[in-house]
Amino acid sequence: METVVSGIRSTGNLHLGNYFGMIRQAVRMQAEYNCYFFVADLHSLTTHPKPLDFQQNVKQVLVEFLACGIDPDKCTLYVQSDIPEISELYLIMNMLAYKGELERVVTFKDKARKQPDNINAGLLTYPVLMAVDIIIQHADKVPVGKDQEQHLEMTRNYVKRFNSMYGVNYFHEPLAFNYEKNLIKIPGLDGSGKMGKSEGGKNAVYLMDKPEQIRNKIMRAVTDSGPEKPNSTKTDAIQNLFALLNIVSKPDTVQFFENQYNHCNIRYGDLKKQLAEDIIKFTTPFREKMEALSDDDLYIQNIRKQGAEKARITARKTLEDVREIIGIKAK
Ligand code: TRP
Questions:
Q1: Contacts of 1 (CB under 8 A, 6+ apart)
Q2: Which of 143, 194, 295, 329 lies at a C-alpha separation of 20 to 30 Å from 245?
Q3: H-helix or E-strand spanning residue 62
């Protein structure tokens, strides 16, 4: 059976981008693969969260995973920092990662632009830690959104480099995965780019958002002054709204607004109202489950512990193998 690994950084509540990029695939994959899903809490350290927020964010992602249908009986669900082997393998793999290639990573360049005062070494080597998450479990497939494609490509490079440097055929090359033909990109509400948590909250719709918050955010999403000619191409902002509509609304609803757009009689306000209601319909069951689970600390703690035990079995073995391969430990 093939192995699957994926994780989400614990930097706040999960949004529709996380759901459609990773969680929805993950829930389906549980039935067909040997799955490892985790909370990438070490990755969140790049922005120096306060200790209490750090804890709270880890728990929140666990709660959201569970509420969305990640099932600890069907997969291994754990927290990255509970697997210390990851940190040691990260140290080792850092020796195979070159500054030049790390500096060319798009996510690094984006973050460096957005937080010029905090371009730390952990941010630069983010793709190395991510590669380790994946290879320590020998994953074949990694369900992620389009924005993570380059990180997977780097993971494959590290695998090849490790194998050739030590003359082994030990790690194998993982692929980014989506059940659809293409990886998914969920746009943000600000008219450009992807939905992300780091843009101050207004760019993303969170699974936890209350109906009123969702209506407010969607009504404020960026639009344009409307099409001037029949069948004109859509601006990015409008394309983004249609992309969201495509994901949460019925096909005839999408068609209805497409027709209006093409005949130049679209009212963006109506489209937004419909979009907001369809998102609310979609997220409400998740929000209700999250609210119920949030109080059950003991249950969450138990799941976390069991997951760590399971994930460490393979992680320990991988690290031992690697220590032997590179000569830290005598054969
Ligand atoms: N980089 C991913 C993101 O920002 C999170 C992540 C960390 C991840 N390690 C991973 C995803 C390993 C898949 C596999 O969404």
A1: 33, 34
A2: 143
A3: helix 51-67
Q: Which of 15, 151, 158, 184 to mutate to test the pocket of ligand 1 (most atoms within 8 A of CB)?
A: 151
Q: Are residues 229 and 318 in the same domain?
A: no
How far apart CA 126 and CA 90 sit, in angstroms, is 10
The yes-or-no answer on residue 194 being catalytic is: yes
Task: Please tell me the distance from the alpha carbon of residue 212 to that of residue 282, in angstroms, as a whole number.
Answer: 14
Tens digit of each residue's pLDDT, the chain (331 residues): 999 999 999 998 999 999 998 999 999 999 999 999 999 999 999 999 999 999 999 999 999 999 999 999 999 999 999 999 999 999 999 999 999 999 999 999 999 999 999 999 999 999 999 999 999 999 999 999 899 999 999 999 999 999 999 999 999 999 999 998 888 888 899 887 888 876 667 889 999 999 999 999 999 999 999 999 999 999 999 999 999 999 999 999 999 999 999 999 999 999 999 999 999 999 999 999 999 999 999 999 999 999 999 999 999 999 999 999 999 999 8
Write the DSSP symbol of residue 262. Answer: H
303 in any annotated domain? yes
Q: Flag whether 42 is in a domain.
A: yes
Number of structural domains found in the chain: 2
Question: Would residue 197 show up in a list of annotated catalytic residues for this protein?
Answer: yes
Confirm whether 74 is domain-assigned: yes
Could you tell me if 68 and 161 lie in one domain? yes
